[in-house]
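[job 0412] stage=fold_complex status=start
inputs:
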Amino acid sequence: MNAETPDRARHAHHATPGAEHGERVGVYVCHCGHNIANTVAVEEVAEWAGQQPNVIVARDYKFMCSSLGQELIEQDIQQLGLNRVVVAACSPHMHEKTFRTACQRAGLNPYLFEMANIREMGSWATDDREAATQKAKAQVKGAVDRAVRQQPLEPLYVDINPNTLVVGGGIAGLTAALELANAGYHVYLVERDSSIGGHMAKLDKTFPTLDCAACILTPKMVDVANHPNITLLTWSEVLSVHGYVGNFTVRVRKKARFINEELCTGCGTCVEKCPVRIIDQNFEVGLGYRKAVYRNFPQAVPKYPVIDTEHCTFFQRGKCRACEIVCPTDAIDFNQKDTFVDLEVGNIILATGYEQFDARRVSQYGYGRLANVFTSMEFERMVNAAGPTAGRVVLRDGVTVPRRVGIIHCVGSRDKNHHEYCSRACCMAALKFAHLVHERVPEAEVFNFYIDIRASGKHYEEFYHRVLAEGTHFIRGRVAEVTDAARGPGEEGQLIIQVEDTLIGKQRRIPVDMVILMAGMESRKDARQVAALFGLGCDYDGWFTERHAKLDPVVTMTEGILVAGACQGPKAIPESVAQGSAAAARVAGMIGQRVMKMEPVRASIDASSCSGCRICNNLCPYHAITFHEDRKVSEVITALCQGCGACVAACPSAAISGAHFTRDQVLAQIEGILWDARQPEVLWLEPQ
Amino acid sequence: MRYGYYPGCSLERNAGAYHTSLMAVAAQLGVEFAEVDDWNCCGATEFIAVNRLRAYALVSRNLALAARQTNGSNGAARGQLVAPCSACFLNLSKVDHYLSESPALTNDVNNALAAGGLSYEPGSLRVRHLLDVMVNDVGYERVAATVRRPLRGLRVAPYYGCLVVRPGFRERFDDPEYPTSLDRLMRTLGATVVDFPLKAHCCGGHMTQISRDVALELIRRLLKNAADYQADMIVTLCPMCQLNLDAFQESVNSMFGTEYRIPILFFTQLMGLAFGLPPAAVGIGKEFIDARPALARIGAAPPAEAEAAPKRKPRRNDQSLPLPQMPEEE
Amino acid sequence: MATSASLSRTSDFFREVVAEAPVDPRLEACLQCGTCGGSCPSGPDMDHTPRALFAMIAAGMRDAVLRSNTPWYCVSCYYCMERCPQEIRITDVMYTLKRMAIKAGYSAQTSAPRAPGFAQTFVDHVENYGRSFELGLITRYYLSHRPLDALKMAPLGMGLLKRKRLDLSPRPIRQIDQLKAILDRAREIDAAAQLT
Ligand SMILES: Cc1cc2nc3c(=O)[nH]c(=O)nc-3n(C[C@H](O)[C@H](O)[C@H](O)COP(=O)(O)OP(=O)(O)OC[C@H]3O[C@@H](n4cnc5c(N)ncnc54)[C@H](O)[C@@H]3O)c2cc1C
Ligand code: SF4
Ligand code: SF4
Ligand code: SF4
Ligand code: SF4
Ligand code: SF4
Ligand code: SF4
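[job 0412] stage=fold_complex status=done
writing structure:
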């Protein structure tokens, strides 16, 4: 090693400002029961930490987050005069708040506390005890070196706007909107489709109780439409979101319906007389037809139709206007334009739901190729009394009643070629279908092909038993293929389901007339764009990421943005409703506080160092940086800043620093983590 | 267009018609196939069943020779190696893929190759099947422009078999369950393509040597399916498929009491005929089931009996429900 | 992915199969869903479906697995591997089991007694000439393994000869010595690692 090599790690030992200023650090290494202690030698880490500069006391303890663990910290602060605290335990997401509060109780500013995550980033990541212990030491060292440089900070307070935006009018969004409205708060409900109701509006009956979806959903839809505290914006989309928790500004585009809502009575004459009939790929999922001026279904809310300009003869060829002629109230307005609305809200609940997996992608099941292979949503529309067949169970020819029906589970789900996860609702929907076939076609036989029956909800298992008792056949095996290629006379003219019956270990070919594919749920195609618009995260599969899967399932990492329903992951109606209510309760709680305490972790710009290059201006995802033309410097608007640090890293003049993430603090932590790293073998050539 | 060419053992003799026709067609299309010098057998499906590393070394010798011969030629850093036989294509691309995945295996293989003064860097060659090159590099348009004698009136069942579409390690160019590229190529030649649900099912492979009964049943299913849809012939792209369906057709007939007489040709033979080449120039006459009666139908009046063939789309009436939309609907 | 720790929890036989496979077959991920058994064209003729065989491997039923005809009836159609929801390399496992059965001396006792002989004859030809030689392969295989069936194959052989689709003598590659050196080295490497 060259003598000139800047030996930072070593220098740090002697030249800590802590030593100068006399910072007194307490280190606490948590066992987390066996979670950490099984892989990390916690006693060794604590003992070693005790020998580090500035460390006054170092202890290990079974559960630091327990009240006894917290008391340990409080006592040491008071008795040993600690002025910095480091806990080496789980993720700060779990317990940073817990320990900060403990510090505060003992009179220490909470921002003088630092956490080292030796569980998720250590003991859970490896089986190698030695490596995990070594890494834990490095993390503790980094945390200590950083803590001594931390400054006391005071939280920021912001007012909370009591209005709430709910995006998505499926059952989850409707529930959230109604709960908040009933609590006396104003709600804006933005729905992209022409009617609210989401997927549930397409269903016939709902498992496990078999109540009719419309009977339980329509009253809620009507309540939403009539509620004085709800502003319903259908056929609308959110364009932009600015601001921060408590104070969001949202721009919404209301697409032109070409119907004047003030005049329209919803009589439906225009729909009846419109000469253009096309296949409805949206609400009827391709199984039925609609007109160019249409409503999804007769009980649609709101009751106003929309004109589909892509298919309307007038919009395409300038002729027709039949609807205009027949409308008794002159409500048709071909000149209507999109309008824009700006909303001020304090919180936003996303309830944008799911899409169905495209069954064509599992080509061995023949959907699209074999006429009598149906998707589950097609079947749902077929059994619906208001659907294309008025509830008759028939083959694609519209008349033949099937005698043998095969229901294939896990289409696109539990399959690494498509989605690895289980879609959760389809087993139960498949059982529901078996029951409905038996009900509508008593002489029919139904075969369910499954890997496992997932019936883990209240009354779900009992429903499975009921379907078993109805004489449905259950064959355990994931279907290999559906074919119309007959091998012999017994198979001619039928669909053959080829499967291994795994319970008897034999390959079977089961002839049926109709196949129903239980296509799973997947995230919406635009989920990532929507997530980016609202500033929240998506997981690998495109589901919105909650703050904590178990303890905080409806709140996201972005303050003021919440999620509910199937947009967060596959789920059935009961859980979607529970989440909608939970999200509403969280928002109501927040509004009740009127003001909100916010982390003081913010960026600030040192005007004297700012060169006015404006690089940071467009980088800030929260539009928190303004530029003063007169003085040619940028400034951070503290209330808007979320402390993401993007500008701090980007500023070429090093003029921006983030409170709690200063350059000094971050570099000290990095050097601490690398305390035992080998010096890079670089030859530093001194300039002559 | 210049490619390294790995004919494989079958094309040397039993599938000589494939080799002759593909060379004739390539000449018409201006594609050059340069045979890999001194290539060896790819091991078919048998070698790997007996030896592990030897099987991988056997295939790798070909990859090493081909890389040396084609890489850098024509300015392309990464040479392309074309195999007309599905089994050869699979073995070459699978070995390349597994070597890339496992450094340990690559190490062992290169140790073995070193004994012969060779080495191979995984991923340095692009291994492709002949059909892929014909439809994606040459392209349907160029093929269409070369057609002189469209195969009008000929009902063909396009048969892909297994290994060209499955498991598709590197060069997946078609659906593994319901491929359509050969269908479109046949239509480009002017032929009528019949629905053939079993188009990617197994021809039995070497099962003919292991359990004749099992193999003959697999062959029977394919023949029955093609007959159900009233195909005049089955077109193949693999020598093993051709041999099994052609040479064992009589055995199937005697075992099951059927009377199938469905000629089995290579797709390049039909391309050659459509390009106006004489039958002898594309190896017609080497098949067990004589193709001439079927070929005589080209240009003749449209067959009336086709009416009886099952239709995929059911007959429509006023109450019919709409069929699902398919993206590539013609 | 099988880690050393997770593998240590599997049966001895399971570990043996994984070690013999050319790349990680990911067998531990099997859901027992039966897609493989349902897809297999030879499924009805096998002693055990591929799925059942994997359960037997997990259970350490070495003899029963290696005596089964299942691997020998695999026609390498790759349907199972394409469709397996866990991306298990089923076809490669079948090859691996064939090798293990030959090594363990069980192959002749399976209910597919002809298969190993055919594969071995094929390999011998390739090792001697560098290319497969169908006439030699078929005659040697039938005469040494199935003399009674040789007659059944005669019309096929004649048919191929008549259509000039069969060579009368093998066509060895030019650098057969190079190939032999490579294969010998490969054999030594495998032997050193006690693999086949
Ligand atoms: C075949 C089938 C049968 C089922 N049967 C049952 C059953 O019997 N019982 C049961 O409990 N569950 C059942 N389910 C599950 C049920 O459909 C879901 O649990 C439920 O619909 C989820 O509701 P949601 O509000 O979260 O989402 P969705 O119903 O998908 O609603 C989301 C709404 O948001 C709107 N939206 C989306 N993106 C935007 C955007 N960017 N801007 C504005 N609006 C947007 C959509 O238009 C939609 O209206 C079934 C599912 C399937 C596939
Ligand atoms: S103008 Fe358009 S929407 Fe109105 S009736 Fe004619 S086609 Fe239908
Ligand atoms: S006819 Fe007029 S009033 Fe009636 S639904 Fe249509 S637009 Fe509304
Ligand atoms: S709920 Fe049932 S059908 Fe749906 S993915 Fe899960 S196991 Fe499969
Ligand atoms: S840290 Fe910088 S970039 Fe990030 S929110 Fe604050 S001002 Fe914007
Ligand atoms: S398909 Fe895959 S997961 Fe299913 S039983 Fe076979 S090996 Fe196991
Ligand atoms: S690859 Fe083998 S085991 Fe798999 S389905 Fe085909 S024949 Fe059966």
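[job 0412] summary: DSSP finds 20 helices and 34 strands in chain A.
[job 0412] exit 0
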